[in-house]
Each structure stands twice: as C-alpha cells, then as structure tokens.
Amino acid sequence: MKISVGSFVLTAAALVSAHYTFPDFIMNGQPTSDWQYVRETANHYSNGPVTDVTNEALRCYELDYSATAPATSVATVQAGSTVGFQANGAIYHPGYLAVYMSPATPAANSPNAGTGNTWFKIWQKLPTVDGSTLTSDTTDSTFTFTIPKDLPSGPYLIRGEQIALHVASTFGGAQFAILKVPQFYIGCAQVNVTNGGSGTPGPLVSIPGVYTGNEPGILINIYDLPSGFVYQPPGPTVWSG
C-alpha cells in the first residue's frame, strides 16, 4: 500500500499532539518557564514516550546526559509545601501518575544525581475502574503534590511520571513499538529543600530498575478488565513522611 507524504505528515502531527512533556515546575501556585527547573527531555520536540523500562532514559529522559543537568536552574522549595508539574498540553492518555524523589549528590544539578538506589515514591494517583474499563481524567494538564514535611533538607530531584496505559497489553521494549506498549512520560525537577525534618524516606529503588514491565499495573488491557478488578500500582509504596 502506498502512503502519501501528506498522509504521513498528518499522522506524525497527530501522534505528536496526542503525546506530551512536563516542561514546567509548579511552585507558589504558578508554573515556571519551560525547562527552567525541569531537565530538558529528549522528547522536547517529538513528545514521544519512553517504552523500555530498562533504558537509562526512564530516569529523567535528559536531552544530554552530561550537559542538561548543569544547564538547568535549581528551585528552592520548603518541606511541606505544594509543588507540581505542568504538561505542554492535556495529559491525553488514561493512566497512572506517580512522583519520586531522590537526594542529589553532590548537587541537584549534578549529572550523577539519582543514578543509584536512591529513589522513593512520595505521591501517586491511580486510574479509576469503570466497569470493565480503566479511565482517568484526560483533560488535566497539571498535577500537584506535597513534599513530605519530615523530608530532610538538602538537594533533591523530583521526578514526575505518567504511565499511559491506553495500549499497554504488550510487553514494552524497542522505541519503534510505541503504538503497542505502555508509554512513560517523565520530567525531573531540580530543587533544594529547606525547613525539612528528620524522616528516613523509603523504600528505596533505582531508576531504571524499579519496574520489570510485567507488573499488573503496567502490562494491562484497560478495555477488558475482569469482574472485581482492583488496580495495583507498580513500584514501591508511598512514603509520606
């Protein structure tokens, strides 16, 4: 079958518009400038997702692993304050939202920050079970959460993640299979946390490493759920301080 150039361009444009990035950090109730405090991601033009849970891109999806972090500013936020992420459009696909944090050594803008077994989950939002279908609000463009009040002060990465589940019934892998597998949309903000406490965050995980891709909350057909289905969020439990 022959596909015209015009049809290809329209299809590509539709794919871009259906995908998204998280370029804006929300603090003091307002979104900041694009990529001001969020490490610019490799999909900043394409909006395409990460599909391989073993790939280093699952961590923060940096445009350049050595240059992006030091080129990004560091926000100062207080423990116990509400912050968030804003997408460059609606979070169009139904799925699961989660936020992880990692202490950042030696600083939040260090390329080596978060590369170990240092990540812990501080927030999540589960999709809704509606009969035999899994849904979520696909009109929202923001999500906000609270930095745990007992979190010790210091430099951190805050990693926002949405796992889009609209075509998640096949095990993920190569980027060319993005139309058939779970899709991960990611943004990492660089922050210094002040007025913190003396809590011990955990359980700790590495990213990549936190998911196998076979979890029931990742590998799923959201349009044909069994009776009595309960969504099982992937990854560690939430640490709320």
Automatic annotation (TrEMBL):
A GO biological process of this protein is: cellulose catabolic process
Q: Which family does it belong to?
A: Belongs to the polysaccharide monooxygenase AA9 family.
GO terms for MF: metal ion binding; monooxygenase activity
Q: What is its EC number?
A: 1.14.99.56
Q: Which organism is it from?
A: Sphaerobolus stellatus (strain SS14)
Names of required cofactors: Cu(2+)
- CDD domains per the UniProt record, alphabetical: LPMO_AA9
GO CC annotation: extracellular region
Q: Where is the Auxiliary Activity family 9 catalytic domain?
A: 19-224
A Pfam family recorded for this sequence: AA9
Q: Which residues form the signal peptide?
A: 1-18
This chain belongs to the protein called lytic cellulose monooxygenase (C4-dehydrogenating)
Identify the InterPro entries for this entry. Answer: AA9, AA9_LPMO
**What's the superkingdom here?**
Eukaryota
